[in-house]
Automatic annotation (TrEMBL):
Pfam families with a match to the protein in the record: GFO_IDH_MocA
Chain ranges of the Gfo/Idh/MocA-like oxidoreductase N-terminal domain: 8-126
Keywords: Oxidoreductase
Protein name: Gfo/Idh/MocA family protein
Lineage: Bacteria, Bacillati, Actinomycetota, Actinomycetes, Kineosporiales
The organism of origin for this protein: Kineococcus mangrovi
Amino acid sequence: MSPPTHGVGILGAGPVTQAIHLPTLAALGDTFEVVHVMDVDARLAESVARRVGAAWTTSVEAVLADERAEVVLVCSPHRFHAEQVVAACRAGKRAVLCEKPLAVDLGQAGDITAASAETGVPIVVGAMHTFDPGWLAATARWGDLVETAHTIRSSIVLPPNPRFEDFSTEVASRPARVARDRHDPEVAAEIVRGEVMGLAVHDLPLVRAFCPDQADVEVLSCHVPAPHGYLIDLRVGGRDIQLHGSHTDSWEPGWTFEAIGDDLSLRVDFTPSYVPAGSATAVLRSADRSEVLGPHPANGYEAEWRFVADLVRGTADPLDVRGLIDDLAFALDIADRAAALVDGSTGSRAGAPA
């Protein structure tokens, strides 16, 4: 007898839900069933729910009260993540998967920690690269690279999200994009903070894996290139870190993570978020060997949902919430320090840490 499917309730029916999670859950139809979709836009909630034969609502409470919704997926705007995660925990759900970031400040993070401790409900953050089979294969083979790496690089070059979203599905009610003046100091700071917490955050847990001493963070420079993106140089615990992201109208995309030591280096090439093209490919190189790991059939999104299924079935240990909060604190610290260095007249500034 095959195991039963597990009901999923979704909070927020925007492009990430439509173009990433619904296709992933459809591919795992023998494991999950979307049973309830919530969005503050009633027409959007109804439209998305109709695609999967689910109930729809504009009420968070209605999803949380639905006993069929064993798992809650939080895909709402960032500012609502923490309160909805806490509410799902206190509603007695069997697992909560929250898109990045888990919260927007450490006060909210404290609320999540308390709710998790009170309820025992397992929480997963949608940092899909930490679940990617190519990345996990590398972690099992890199030996002492964490201790010996001196340079870490994350580089993300992507066309605008709508281009990928349109490849994946017909997106209903896409939010309008408003042009902003990156030369305005306050706007530039908001852009940097948004880019770190919206894009760089995907790989910051990977960076932190190589930087156990996250308290020793120095942001050396920050640049806001035209028309969109970020370039941040920092040092963490004596390691040089380079974070680069850009949005272009050209092809092709590139998403790479590198860790470089004196005797061994790692390069991981990830598939773009909206492309279900299997796992990353990791390459470990030394003077006398080059080892290629992957690609594997499943991508990080599928792997994270399979992990959620194991949590619900009691066959996997919950993640340590303290580690998730540490990832969040690391990202918030970098975002705040980088934003403080931005000079609106040039789009960049080098200086001492904030």
